[in-house]
Amino acid sequence: MGVSVIVDAVINHMAAGSSTEQQGTAGTSYSGRSFEPYNYDSNNMHHFDGNTNANCEVDDYTSQQNVQQCDLVGLVDLDTENSNVQDTIAAYINNMNSLGASGYRIDAAKHINQNSISSIISKAPQIYCFQEVIYGAGEPVTPEMYTPFGDVTEFNFGVDMWNVFKQDSNDQMQYLTNFGYELTKF
Question: Is 81 a catalytic residue?
Answer without folding.
Answer: no
